[in-house]
Amino acid sequence: MTATANPSRTAARPTGGGLAARRAVIRWAVRLFRREWRQQLLAIALLTVAVTGATFGLAATWNLPPSSDATFGRADQLIRIPGDDPAALDTRVTAAREWFGTIDVIGHRRVPVPGLFDPVDVRAQDPAGAYGGPMLDLRQGRYPTGPAELAVTDGVARALRAGLGARVPFGDADRLIVGVVENPADLHDEFALTDPAHANRPQSVTVLVAGDHDTMEAFRRTVDGPLVRESRPVAERTTLTLAALALATVGLLLVSLVAAAGFVVLAQRRLRQLGMLAAMGATRRHLRLVLLVNGAAVGVVAAVCGTAVGVAAWLVTAGFVETAAGHRIGRFDLPWLTIGVGMLLAVVTATAAAWWPARAVARTPIMSALSARPPAPPAARRTAVAAAALLAAGLTALVLSDGSNPLLIVVGSVGTVLGVLLASPLTIPALAAARGGLPVAVRLALADLARYRVRAGAALAAISLAVGLSAAIVVGSAAAEYRSREAAGLGNLADSQLLVRIGQPDPVIPERTAAEIAALHARTDTIAASVGGAIVIPLDMAVVASHTDPGREGGPTGHPAVEIGVPRAAGESTTSHPLYVVSPELLRLNGAAGMAVDADTDVLTTRTGELALMNIPARGVRPTVRTLARSGYTGLPDSLITPAALDRHGWQPARVGWFLTADHPLTSAQLATAQELAAAAGLTIEARREQGSLTALRTGATVAGVLLALGVLATTVGLIRGEAAADLRTLTATGASRRVRRTLTATTAGALALLGAVLGVAGAYLALAAALHRDLDPLGAVPVAHLVAIVSGLLLVATGAGWLLAGRPPPSLARRVLD
Questions:
Q1: Where on the phi/psi map is residue 73: left (φ > 0), alpha (ψ -120 to 50), or beta?
Q2: Contacts of 227 (CB under 8 A, 6+ apart)
Q3: Is the pLDDT assigned to residue 793 strictly greater than 60?
Q4: Exposed site from 453, 484, 586, 706, fewest CB < 10 Å?
Q5: Left, alpha or beta for 551 (phi > 0: left; psi -120 to 50: alpha)?
């Protein structure tokens, strides 16, 4: 009998089982994930933490930037008009109202308050104004409605030491505090609010208007006289959030490299199962699909859990973020679309992390898979060449970047990281080769590491990456802190010093009688006694007694104080510094005790370059300068004018304050007492301002790096020791003690921890040295304590945990545990 095959039906039959086979493989992979989810807790935890950080970071980045509502309210443009000429001020405000129609006028007047350096901004603002609503909010009480009423921010209330319902002297009259207000878009904006209908003549006015830039320019051309115009800046909120998403993507990619070590462990654990699947006819594509589905499942779980935890963390900490940001924050004002993209990225990166282990397992011969034989490690020469090429390319890109080219920095960082990751497994055989002369248990543990180099190398690369990121943050923050301190010096003052001034800092010094000075000196002595018997150094400034200055509006008249600064062309602004009359005490304070001053020297100063005397009737007076050594403190009286210069110019010394220095750091209680005494006497005090420190960042990076590396270690060491269970059973049967079992696990964990820590720190320093090669001084500020904590902490914790947790004997000496 003859049979004819149907070629069309044969050709239409799908190869490898088609869609039905893929569905079956996917269902099996999901069941495996549900059954073995405990073995994947590390990868899930790592990705969950990354998604949590990304979600929280996106929420914070979305809400942290300052809002232009703090200045513009709901307006598009603002105009600042000086109030020196009341008639001109009224004319310009009327012109703005006629030109724009609806406007919102806010008057400003600066009122000195005892105990504060800066005068308080008293605003005459209508709470129901057309555009200023977002700039004003009532927290307690009510808005002022009469000439004797005042509403203040909490900072001004603290300075006045008065609360709601108190009557305080303010400016030229007593005022009743009827409300507590704030600028919701800028919580650091301290001001007092008065009723616009009963406010004093303003010193300046802000006019809020709607319109575009061209309309504003057209109006500007119709107005004579000076006015300052500003346009609402373009919102940077979206740009910053996208930048945060890009940063979160990089973080997820790096975490996926760490998670890849967990997927290597999982692939090796399932090797026999996958071999059985291949023996039943599964193709390589099916085998890859098993692990890819597992990676996607891990990503989905991590994305959902991480997003939920991140949003919950945001809701809990939003109040603290609000305080740090300095403006009110809507709790659910979040970039939900961007957060959704972050969740999708988590799934994609988890799937990508599972791809390489899936590819390697799919290529494993069936017999090797069924016997669970560890795959042959790749040729060391090929890996070494690739690692060297990537390291060279990465370091070259970082050198060429000069620490400022973002593209080269990214390329160089990625190349260096990949080079270190590829080089990490090559160190395992070198460590195993040096095991001669060590105890048997140690030699066996190191031999097992070399035997299982593929999975141990993946774990070592992940540990190196975790430690390297941590070390890079630690070393980089130390370098940044070094540079910032170089730029800012040691701060304004030492923590044992106080600078006491008479009144507010002002280049116009009013005339004071000897009795007034004596009374203020007595008050200063009281302050010195309250902080523990500090030494009091009088501070005099040179004033031009032949010239009278009217001072600021509302302030006393006086004589201009001579200052020093860098000369500028006419119409340009510059920064000037006060000149104090030289005295033996001030010379000692500046480290120049007993210095002989020449008669022709005008100024002793720590400042360098071209200098000129300023705030005097004559322009371009260049003094004869002698340089003092820098102390590092920016608020120290370190610019001194000599008595000979006073005689040459006919200037007179005038008492402006006192400098107090104690022999011990001042406590917060002493500072509070000193400020109260100064405010009661009409004096102001400058104390040390705390400098920002990145120590907390370094500590957090250290702890995070060690914990992440320990998580990778725990899974890897457990797998390696599990695969070596046959050796352990043999050792136990031949009489090996519990100590031997402990030594095996402790050595495995300690060796991986030590190699990973050394490689990670070395890689971080290589990358930073390449990026900062033109100025390596910041890297000289080595954060020894944190680096020692990373290396020794990881080594000790890993070794100790391995020793403590490995004493239990194997459950069976004769039977191999089945999968």
A1: left
A2: 79, 80, 81, 82, 92, 220
A3: yes
A4: 484
A5: left
State the Cα–Cα distance between residues 610 and 720, nearest whole angstrom.
70
Please tell me whether residue 660 adopts helix, strand or coil conformation: strand
Q: Hey, what are 616's tokens?
A: 């005097």
Going through 65-143 in order, the beta strands assigned E by DSSP cover 77-82, 104-111, 120-124, 137-141
List pLDDT tens digits, range 573-593: 456 778 888 888 888 888 888
Q: What six digits make up the tokens of 54?
A: 């990304």
The secondary structure of residue 133, as a DSSP letter, is: G
For 282-308, the pLDDT digits (tens) are: 777 777 777 788 788 888 888 898 889
Tokens coding 406? 């973002």
Higher per-residue confidence, 554 vs 519:
519
Residue type, 435: R
Q: State the angle between helix axes of 453-488 and 695-723 in degrees (0 to 180), rounded to the nearest 10.
A: 170
Q: Mean per-residue pLDDT for 211-240?
A: 72
Alpha carbons 516 and 657: distance in angstroms, whole number: 12
Closest CA to 738 of 809, 690, 638: 809
CB contact at 8 A, 540 and 502: no
Find all residues with CB under 8 Å of 523, minimum gap 6, and list them.
Answer: 677, 678, 680, 681, 683
Backbone angles phi, psi at 148, to 5 degrees: -100, 15
Quote the strand ranges of 401-521, DSSP E: 497-502, 508-509
Cross-strand bridge partners of residue 604: 626, 640
